[in-house]
Amino acid sequence: MVQEKLPGLFDDDVPKPEEQQDVVSHASGMARLRKQVGASRTISDLYVPDAVIAIKEAAKCESLDALKTRLVQVLSQNSEETRIRNARFVIRWFFPDGIDGIAKKTWLAYEDNRILMDVLRWLYLSQEPVMGRCVTDCLFPIELGMRVPGTEFDRFLTSYYSDSPTKKTTQRLKANLIKLGILEGARGHDHLLVPLVPTGAIAPVPRISTKSGPFSPGEWLESLPGSAQGY
């Protein structure tokens, strides 16, 4: 019996019209779900140092369970409960493709923290919908280096969730964007939009890759030096 081939992360098959309609319907359903009363409006703190530790520790692990156990041992938080929670977030955000995914492969190929940060940034934005949508809908249209008023984030979150966000939600949104290197603090409540150029952008080996969305793997991988493109 021939098993149906499931689409891979980098499949470039063009969806059929009825499949496109399904995607549109699903997106509309998700939008309605976000706007329902009681939908989650919590944005968790992003700990970039923990993510970097996790990727490097993953090079020594053969499974996500083993990695989680290791992170609970090596993360710096005093509380074991906090280390367990952070380990779960790190694995959800940065290992959606498994223990041998893009983050681990990138580190093994280059052992370069700057390139790794490019990949971590993409992974986080692709796995945390409200953060990714903020970049594409709120920040992307703004000219690089321009000031971003604090009210812009409140306006985005109100549109995303259909009602006013809590002060903590707005603070964490901005704080996580700063940790990702996308924003810088400015005077008052404004922030500056930072130009982002992937580290490998001057690599001599370009590659045409599938682009399936605003944070698709191809947009990052095509600019990396040769060996990571073999992912």
Overview of this protein structure:
The chain contains ten helices and three strands; from the N terminus they run αααααααβααββα. The chain has a three-stranded antiparallel β-sheet. The radius of gyration is 19 Å and the shape is globular. By secondary structure, the chain is mostly helical. The two termini are 30 Å apart.
Structural topology:
Blueprint: H1 17-34, H2 48-58, H3 64-74, H4 80-94, H5 102-110, H6 113-127, H7 129-139, E1 147-148, H8 150-161, H9 167-179, E2 183-185, E3 191-193, H10 217-221
Antiparallel strand pairs: 1-3, 2-3
What are the salient characteristics of this protein?
231 residues, single chain, 3% strand, mainly alpha, 52% helix, disordered N terminus
A few lines on this structure:
By secondary structure, the chain is mostly helical. It has helices at residues 17-34, 48-58, 64-74, 80-94, 102-110, 113-127, 129-139, 150-161, 167-179, 217-221; strands at residues 147-148, 183-185, 191-193.
